[in-house]
Design brief:
Length: 207
Amino acid sequence: MASFASTVKKELTQLEVHPEHAKAELSALIRMNGTLTIIRHQLGLDVVTENPAIARRIYSLIKQVYQQEATLSVRRKMKLKKNNQYVVRLVQGVQPMLQDMDILDATGLTINTAVSPKITSEPQRMRSYLRGAFLAGGSVNNPETSSYHLEIYSLYEDHNDDILAMMNHFDLNARAVQRRSGYIAYLKEAEKKLPTFSTLWVRRTPC
């Protein structure tokens, strides 16, 4: 039986979005789940997820926004629960794509861990980035429970600060906490804020 969080994420992957806002969503997915590689002396990109719907979403967003053909493969983890991992791999045009999303700086040598000002200055792009961040590193339990809780995990503090600021731009009263392995922006007992929070991604018009 699918969890509530996986059901929500599957629904989010089916939303149609404007290309400019698709770029914001994609940048969150890549920044949070992407790994740079060197393949045949050129920069490559692997984006890894355990959710097949999210993998297909990443694949389609790359094609929609940058007209690049990635590959999609599956591998089995050898530790813990041995879940499948889905890998979206891109080996062409990686550096200019990441520079366009401000994930790499102008030199192509430094990774920017903070969210691009192009996103944080525009509400619709913020919505789309938060949607991507939730897909990449978010969890939520059923709002019908007494301990309704939503959180988004970030590896870097400045990225978590940006997630927190974007959530609170929409009056969600989000908070942050540091963990041993990273940082979390979270909503606790968020049923009071559910109507506002839902507008981040349930709108059926392109966003």
